[in-house]
Amino acid sequence: MGDITLTAADGHSFSAYRAGPDDAAHGLVVVQEIFGVNHHMRHVCDAFAEKGYAVVSPALFDRTERGVQLGYTPDDVQRGLALRAKISDAAVMADIAAAAAALGGMKIGIVGYCWGGTLAWLGATRTKTFSAAVGWYGGGIAATRTEVPNCPVQLHFGVLDASIPMLDVRAIREAQPGVEVFVYDGAGHGFGCDERGSYSARDAREAQDRTLEFFGQNLR
Exposed site from 35, 150, 197, 198, fewest CB < 10 Å? Predict the structure, then answer.
């Protein structure tokens, strides 16, 4: 358990956090928010590892700045957005592919949060690597909602999320009737992160239970 170094297909070398048992039967790629593979994302990885998954979380910001681990202040948000804007989807997907490859030949899923929620959706639609995908409050999913997923997908959104209107969520549901979409009435953006003011313990617990059940069903 700890930091490892991976290499993407284009030769880019980057850091990733790995957790979980060596003899795990199934794996997960955990995709970061716009705050890097920080304390919270490592905690998320460790929680999945405790459930028996081998987990790799790629440090996507290494493409532009190495070692980024931000907090959740307004300044951190702006810095994270600026870093994200410098990295193409193609480059990010190359890093996610390398993270998946690091898990070996086991059946694997992808789960992401915020920016990572959108990337989990792209992992389902733009690759055939994953057997299941879960996205939490992915703000870019609505814009790519007509893409066709290659695996089962589950999505989670908060009704009070100021950055993802319920009109977007309804549009996703209409475009993707085969995708499980859950909304949480009292939840805002980032409701799954216990280091943010928007954290909702009840909603986070329910979403996590659904996530684990979904992976349990689809990664068997």
Answer: 197
User: Active-site residue among 62, 95, 161, 203?
Assistant: 161
Domain ranges of the chain: 2-218
Choose the catalytic residue: 62, 114, 156, 193.
114
pLDDT at 179 > cutoff 90: yes
**Residue 42, SS3 per DSSP:** helix
| CATH number for the segment(s) 2-218 | 3.40.50.1820
Can you spell out the DSSP letters for 166-181?
HHHHHHHHHH-TTSEE
Cα 96 from Cα 130, distance rounded (Å): 11
62 CB-near residues (< 8 Å, 6+ apart): 12, 14, 15, 68, 95
1 band by pLDDT with thresholds 50, 70 and 90: confident
The answer to whether residue 189 is catalytic is: yes
Dihedral Cα 85, 78, 29, 148, nearest 10 deg: -50
Count of residues making up the chain: 220
Cβ-contact 58, 27 below 8 angstroms: no
C-alpha to C-alpha distance for 96 and 59, rounded to whole angstroms: 9
Banded pLDDT at 98 (limits 50, 70, 90): very high
Looking at residue 134, its pLDDT comes to 98
Asked if 114 is an active-site residue, the reply is: yes
pLDDT at site 105: 86
